[in-house]
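Check this:
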Amino acid sequence: MELTLGAFIEQVAVYPSLAVIIFLVIGVTVISGATDAPNAIATAVSTRCMTPTCALVVAAVFNLLGIILMTYISTAVAHTMFSMVNFQGDTHQALMALEAAMIGSIIWGFICWFLGIPASKSHSLIAGITGGAIALNGWAGVVPSEWVKVVYGMAFSLIAGFALGWVAVRILEKLCGSMNRKVANNRFTMVQNINAALLSFLHGAQDGQKFMSIGLLGIALAFGSESFEGTGFPLWLMLICSLAISLGTFLGGKRIIKSVAMDMVNLEKYQGAAATSGTIVTLFISSMTGMPVSTSHASTASIMGVGASNNPRKVKWGIAKNMVLAWILTFPCCGLIGFLLAKAFMML
C-alpha cells in the first residue's frame, strides 16, 4: 500500500471522509497534548526542578521526538490499536463509523480537560473506536485477542506504577539518607530534569502511535487494505501528529500539571525522582510489549505510591478518587457515544 502524501490526496478525492478522519486524528492528538502530556512534567514542576514554561518546552520537544524515533524502533502499540477492532465491510460506512468514534473521543476529552481531570485519552480513544466498530459489525467488530491487551495495560500501569514508585522512594531513602540535603537536592533536580525528558519521549512513543494508528486505519480502509503487515507510518503523518501533540501541550498543560502533582500530594525532590523513575519503567515495558497504557494512569499511580510509602495520609485520596471515577466512566461513556454517533453517521 503506497502511503505517500500524493497518493493520500488522490484517495481523499474518492473518499472525502478520509480527510475528516485525519483532521479528527489531529484534534485528538492536540487534546492528548493538553491532557496527557503534562503528566510527564508535572512532578518536575511541582518540586520546583523546572519552571512551568521550561517544562512545557521540554515536553513539547521530546513528545515530538518520541513519536518519530520510537516508530522506527517498535510499532507494537500501533499494531495492537490497528488490530483490536474490525472495521471491514462497506468502505463508506466504515469511514463514517471511524469518524463517529473519533468525535466521541474528542467530546469526552474536552469535558475532562475543562474539569481539570487528567483523563486517559488512550482509553477514550480505544472506547470510542470500539463503540464504532460494534455499531458497524456487532460484537464481531471486536478482536478479543488484541483488545485484551488494553485490560492488561490498564492493570499493569496502575499496579506497576504504584509499586515501582513505592519501591523507588524506599531505595532512595536508604541510599541517600545520610547525604547532605543541598547536594542531594541538586542531584535529584538533575535526575528529575532528565526523567521529565524521558517521560515526555515515552508519552510521545505511546500516545503518538495510538493516534497515528487510527489515521493509518482510516487510510487502510480507503485503500482497501485489511492488514497492518507491511504497512509503515508515512513521515508526513508522523510530522503532523508530532506537531499536534506539541501544540496541545503548550495550550493546555498548566491546568493538568496543577491537578496531578500540585493538588494530589506534596513531593520533595527525591520523591519526585522516584515517582518519575517508576513511571518511566512502566511506560517503557508497556511500549515494548504492545500494551496501550495511559501516561495519566502510570504517572498518578506512581505519585500515589511515593506519597503512600511514608504516610498514606499525605495523599489526597479525594482527588485520586475523582480521577479514578473519570477513568471508570471513560469506557462506557466514550463507547456509547461512539456507538450512537456511528449508527447515526452510517445512515447518511
In short: The radius of gyration is 20 Å. The first helix runs from residue 5 to 14. DSSP finds 13 helices and no strands in the chain. The chain has a mean pLDDT of 82.
